[in-house]
Amino acid sequence: MTAEEDVLLRTLEARVTQLTLEYKVQKERNTALIRAMEEKDSIIAALNARIGRLQSDYANLKTARMIDISSEDMKNAKSRISKLVREVDKCIALLNV
Question: Under a CB-based contact definition with an 8 Å cutoff, are residues 26 and 34 in contact?
Fold first, then answer.
């Protein structure tokens, strides 16, 4: 081998070594990114489950509130009807006198 070929061979070996090291670095980085992505996916799944529970709780709360409002309206309506019945009874009593 000539000196020029020897220099080219060493240069090639150095570049291959450098490329191998860069490959290992990138592979480790890729593994770390995959791990981070899997963690984020699990967090997203947990948050989606929580959103589902909260939406269900909200729907139940709305339904309970509607029932509560209806019960209060019923009480008010009964109270008004009772007042009207008393007034009618008073009027009938006055007519009978």
Answer: no
